[in-house]
Amino acid sequence: MKLYLWGRDDRAVSFWKRNLPAPSPLFQLEIATGFSALSPGDTVLIPSEQATLFRGQQLHLLTCGRCCKDTFTFSSRKEERAVIALMRTLDTPAGLLDPIELPATFPPDTGDFALLGAAAVRILSGQTGPLFFR
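Below the sequence we write its predicted structure tokens.
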């Protein structure tokens, strides 16, 4: 399975490069900066406010944002701490992944999508303990 992070924000990309896990046997992770990198059937982590950009594409979208309809969201968020939630069961190459909430700590001024995207990759990689980002 290919998994893409929609990487149009330089600060988010820099954060991901510091915090993403080692390569996973479950998926190939790439940062996409344009539609040319994407193929039908690919899975893409996107900020929910950009979902309309993907309308009509044959992609599996996992949204990240502050809405309860997003796939990944915050149960709570403070300056350097949050609880990040997977809101629905996902069918992954490793099997079904049930909803989960994980506490996270991170540097101040970390953007929502940078944090949610990195947390989503770690959760999809099988991490079920607290998330620590630098």
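The radius of gyration is 14 Å.
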